[in-house]
Amino acid sequence: MNPPSHATAQTDPARRSPGRGGAHPNPSPMTSPIPTAAPTRPGGQSVGGPIRFTVLESPVGELLACADTTGAITGLHFRDRRTAAPKPDWISDERPFAQLGRQLDEYFAGELHDFDLELAPSGSPFQLDVWEALRAIPYGQTASYGEVAATVGQPGAARAVGGANNRNPIAIVVPCHRVIGASGSLTGYGGGLDRKQQLLALESGVLTLA
């Protein structure tokens, strides 16, 4: 079992129910790349070794899960939205993902509201701050890009927040689906707007996916 995540956000973006919004642009859908080399910890220190991966079944389609050599999750991607396949030096290994799989099952059953996993996304300091802020948006609620920008101390940087949202490498667990448009529109999502609707409906208690 992986130890509890130390990346849980301490920030607290403005919160509201789906359908409301604050002023911000509408960034493009998430298109985060699958990492092709050993991931790095926040701060740039390489953990070394090839990426571990497995494919997890879920009610919203197959998920490609990636982890570093310590078992920390580095990626979770919708397979049908990606053209990249696991790289030749990746190692197929289900063992690092047992806890992730169990928690995803509980999430889709509506039983789990907060993931407790060790995460190791690779990104710039600003991206890491944004992804941390996304994890502070409560289950069943949403925030605008502008609100997230204010939370990370960059008011007026809504477009940059949208770019960081695009690059989120750990779908669902780092809930970029909870960020919506100023008018309450869903805007884009790397998994497709149908999946974004499903995830928000699940978290609102009006849909069961298990």
Gist?
The protein is an alpha/beta fold.
Q: Which sequence of strands runs across the widest sheet?
A: 3-2-1-4
SSE succession: EEEEHHEHHEH
Taken together, the total number of domains comes to: 1
Write down the CATH class: Mainly Alpha
Q: What is the strand content?
A: 5-15%
| Class from helix and strand fractions | alpha/beta
CATH topology: Arc Repressor Mutant, subunit A
Unreliable stretches (pLDDT < 50, length at least 5) are 1-46
CATH architecture: Orthogonal Bundle
Distance between the first and last residues' Cα: 23 Å
Biggest β-sheet strands, sense, barrel: 4 strands, mixed
**Total strand count, please?**
6
Report the average pLDDT across residues: 81
Q: Radius of gyration over alpha carbons?
A: 16 Å
Can you give a write-up of this model?
- The longest helix is centred in the last third of the chain and has 12 residues.
- The protein has 210 residues and is α/β, with parallel strands linked by helices.
- It has five helices and six strands, in the order E-E-E-E-H-H-E-H-H-E-H.
- The protein has a single domain, classed as Orthogonal Bundle (Arc Repressor Mutant, subunit A).
Topology (elements, then pairings):
Elements: E1 52-56, E2 63-67, E3 73-78, E4 91-92, H1 98-108, H2 125-135, E5 143-144, H3 145-151, H4 158-166, E6 179-180, H5 193-204
Parallel strand pairs: 1-4, 5-6
Antiparallel strand pairs: 1-2, 2-3
Helix pairs in contact: 3-4
Short descriptors:
210 residues, Arc Repressor Mutant, subunit A, two-stranded parallel sheet, 5 helices, four-stranded mixed β-sheet, alpha/beta, globular
